[in-house]
Every structure is written in structure tokens, then in C-alpha cells.
UniProtKB/TrEMBL annotation:
Keywords per UniProt: Amino-acid biosynthesis, Histidine biosynthesis, Hydrolase, Methionine biosynthesis, Multifunctional enzyme, NADP, One-carbon metabolism, Oxidoreductase, Purine biosynthesis
Associated pathway: One-carbon metabolism; tetrahydrofolate interconversion
Domain of life, per lineage: Bacteria
Assembly notes: Homodimer.
A Pfam family per the record: THF_DHG_CYH_C
Gene this chain is encoded by: folD
Domain Tetrahydrofolate dehydrogenase/cyclohydrolase catalytic: 5-120
EC number from the UniProt entry: 1.5.1.5, 3.5.4.9
Originating organism: Streptococcus sciuri
Chain sites annotated for binding NADP(+): G165, R166, S167
The UniProt record lists the keyword Plastid: no
Protein name: Bifunctional protein FolD
Function: Catalyzes the oxidation of 5,10-methylenetetrahydrofolate to 5,10-methenyltetrahydrofolate and then the hydrolysis of 5,10-methenyltetrahydrofolate to 10-formyltetrahydrofolate.
Length: 287
């Protein structure tokens, strides 16, 4: 029998628990976790993502700052904005919403974020820690998927996990997190040959391609766990995943829906990691 992995329910539960922890932190230490989100220009999708992050941060009781800057801001000016938040002790997490305009080098911008406040986990110091098996801050989407797998008690030890997609945001960090839990990991991409032959050997299949309904049931072994990261719009503007949910659900043992699967966990992990930075700052004061 197939089980639906409900990210909406888990995210709501984690955010409720976080609200209580934030309240306790305020009462005990007078400390409020602070999250600064920087949005460059007016990309409509980015505006929606940033608004959602702002609302969720406020809802759990954080200090939430959204810094909106013009599309034509220079790289140097943007780095100055980041520098301000690096120095601001009331800010524990800094996030620069991607993508950035073409005239700005996103690698340089990410490098400018204090690695201790890099709650998106994109700074090379944090990706290095992840590859060395000493994760501090981890990219939020794969971190959220690990929470989902743990909550549904999905055994990873010795299992074959296949990931479709090798982005720095999802595929690569996902591989490392699964490896750390003793899965045998195969990372596939657009040049992989006989993709469906590879994916059909997966006990756990993570799909992060960005093409609506790409994965049919011919890609999935009976009883596999299927995690759909994709967020695409169909011709009617409806949000759909990378997996053909209606067909694959009959083959999978566990599956995430879109929406309501991986998506809600991404913001939750961003909030959780920001809280953890604030908590570490309390421990520093106590020492
Ligand atoms: P991305 O940077 O565009 O990467 C897509 C990956 O898919 C690339 O590695 C690409 O291979 C691979 N790919 C493309 N076509 C393929 C094919 N025909 N066969 C096999 N592999 C193929 O995308 P991303 O940022 O990882 O995001 C992927 C999807 O997840 C998008 O729909 C995005 O909106 C969604 N997403 C959702 C969340 C969330 O919170 N739910 C968060 C992040 C992303 P190459 O490397 O060879 O080009």
C-alpha cells in the first residue's frame, strides 16, 4: 500500500514547535532570531518566494527583514548591504534570493555572506563542511527531504538512492546527505545514458529536474520511495512536479505530492537553521 509523504503537515508541526522555542528563547535570554532576506530586482517568482519567507519568519516570531534593492545595484553595493548584516548582531541568518541579475557574480556575492550566517548553506565553507561529513549549514531543500525521510522512518542504510539532477541547490548536497546515512548514491543528469534503466534500480528516487511530469512509472521500481522536488507550471498555470503523480503512486511505496510535499519543508529548514544560529550565539555568551 502506498503512503503519501505529507510535507505540509510536518512543516506545520515543526513551525509550531519552533514558535514555542522562539518564545522560550525570548523569555529566557531576551533574544529574538533575526533573518535578513535580500531581493535584487523584481523577478515575479522571487518576489513570491521572498514574501513567503518573510511571512513564515514573522509567524514563528523572528525579527524578519526583507531588503529590496534595485535591479541595477552594483556588485560592490550589494556586497556592502551583506556586510552590514554580517556585522549586525541582531541578524542570525542572511539569504540572498537567487537568481541575481546577469551583471552580478552570484559566487562572489555568496562568498561575501558570513559563513556562520549562511542559512541557505551555499557558502563554499559550508559546502566543504558538508562534503567532509561535518555539516553545519545545509541547503534547505535537501535538508527538508532528510527530515521527511526520517519522519516516515525510511531506512537508508545500504539502500540504493538515485538522484536525477546535479544542481548545487538540490542534487549535489542531497547526494552527500544520503551518503552520510550510508545509502549507496547514484547522481544522474542530462548526459546520463539509459536513465530509466538506472532509476529502475533505485530504492529511493529523488527527482529534481525542473520538467513537469518527466518521470513516468517506467522509471520507477515497484516499492520505491519517490521524492519529487520539481516545481513547474502546466499550460493552465497549475503547479506540477517532475513526477507523473497519478501513475507513479500505483508503483511507489511512499511518494511526495506537489504541492504539499518537499516545498513546505524548504522554508521550514531555513527557519530552523536560523534559530540554530541564534541558539549557538546564546551558548557563546554562556561560555
Ligand atoms: P537546475 O539547476 O535547473 O538543475 C536541473 C538538473 O536536472 C540538472 O542537473 C540537469 O542536468 C538535470 N536534467 C535536466 N534535464 C534532464 C533530463 N532530461 N534527464 C536527466 N537530467 C536532466 O534545477 P534545480 O534548481 O535543481 O531545481 C530542480 C527542480 O526543483 C525545479 O523544478 C525547481 O523549481 C525545483 N525546486 C524546488 C524546490 C522546493 O523547495 N520545492 C527547491 C529548489 C528547486 P545537467 O546538469 O546535465 O544540465
Amino acid at each position: 500500500m502506498m503512503t503519501l509523504i505529507d510535507g505540509k503537515v510536518l512543516a506545520a508541526k515543526m513551525q509550531k514547535e519552533l514558535t514555542d522555542k522562539v518564545q522560550k528563547m525570548k523569555e529566557t535570554y531576551g533574544l529574538v532570531p533575526g533573518l535578513a532576506v535580500i531581493l535584487v530586482g523584481g523577478n515575479p517568482a522571487s518576489q513570491v518566494y521572498v514574501r513567503n519567507k518573510e511571512r513564515s519568519a514573522q509567524k514563528v516570531g523572528f525579527k524578519s527583514i526583507t531588503k529590496r534593492v534595485a535591479n541595477n545595484i552594483s556588485e560592490e553595493e550589494l556586497i556592502e548591504v551583506i556586510e552590514e548584516y554580517n556585522q549586525d548582531t541582531s541578524i542570525h541568518g542572511i539569504l540572498v534570493q537567487l537568481p541575481l541579475p546577469e551583471h552580478i557574480n552570484d559566487k562572489k556575492v555568496i562568498m561575501a555572506i558570513d559563513p556562520n550566517k549562511d542559512v541557505d548553506g551555499f557558502h563554499p565553507i559550508n559546502t566543504g563542511h558538508l562534503w567532509n561529513g561535518r555539516p553545519t549549514m545545509v541547503p534547505c531543500t535537501p535538508a527538508g527531504i532528510m527530515e521527511l525521510l526520517a519522519t516516515y522512518a525510511i531506512d537508508l542504510d545500504g539502500k540504493h538512492a538515485v538522484i536525477i539532477g546535479r544542481s548545487n541547490i538540490v542534487g549535489k548536497p542531497m547526494a552527500q546527505l544520503l551518503l552520510a546515512k550510508n545509502a549507496t548514491v547514484t547522481l544522474t543528469h542530462s548526459r546520463t545514458q539509459n536513465l530509466s534503466e538506472v532509476t529502475k534500480t533505485a530504492d529511493i528516487l529523488i527527482v529534481a529536474i525542473g520538467q513537469g511530469n518527466f518521470v513516468t512509472k517506467d522509471y520507477v521500481k515497484k516499492g520505491a520511495v519517490v521524492i519529487d522536488v520539481g516545481m513547474n507550471r502546466d499550460s493552465d498555470g497549475k503547479l506540477i512536479g517532475d513526477v507523473q503523480f497519478d501513475a507513479v503512486k500505483d508503483v511507489a511505496s511512499y511518494i511526495t505530492p506537489v504541492p504539499g510535499g518537499v516545498g513546505p519543508m524548504t522554508i521550514t529548514m531555513l527557519l530552523e537553521q536560523t534559530y540554530q544560529v541564534a541558539q549557538r550565539s546564546v551558548r557563546h555568551v554562556e561560555c
